[in-house]
């Protein structure tokens, strides 16, 4: 794993979904950061990623020019997040690649928002 845990997470979670997909995932990170709730990882991006995103636990593997461009985009977005220059594209706090993983919690705890790329996004109530 590199020293840029948010960039690694963005690449692993949504690197194959273009910048819009990575920005949607980054928005959940920024929203969790702004909420500053310990069960979501507090206000530290590394902790947020390590606590709630499987992509933070996978080594980055660059397999060609497309992966290299995607990783460079992930690094740029991560730098925007850390500098405070990132503006969330949504107010979502959770996502998954399966809507059914939230189906038993939808309603009382989470509200489904939309699907972007291969991710379903939810907002905590």
TrEMBL record:
Domain Cell wall hydrolase SleB positions: 17-122
Taxonomic superkingdom: Eukaryota
GO MF: hydrolase activity
Pfam families assigned to the protein according to its UniProt record, in alphabetical order: Hydrolase_2
Record's protein name: Cell wall hydrolase SleB domain-containing protein
Annotated organism of origin: Stentor coeruleus
């Amino acid at each position: 794993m590199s020293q840029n845990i948010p960039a690694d997470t963005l690449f692993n979670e949504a690197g194959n979904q273009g910048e819009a997909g990575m920005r949607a995932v980054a928005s959940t990170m920024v929203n969790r950061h702004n909420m500053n709730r310990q069960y979501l990882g507090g206000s530290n991006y590394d902790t947020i990623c390590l606590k709630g995103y499987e992509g933070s636990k996978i080594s980055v593997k660059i397999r060609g020019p497309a992966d290299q461009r995607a990783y460079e985009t992930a690094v740029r977005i991560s730098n925007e997040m850390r500098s405070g220059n990132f503006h969330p594209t949504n107010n979502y706090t959770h996502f998954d690649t399966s809507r059914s993983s939230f189906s038993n919690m939808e309603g009382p705890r989470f509200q489904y928002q939309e699907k972007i790329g291969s991710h379903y996004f939810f907002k905590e109530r």
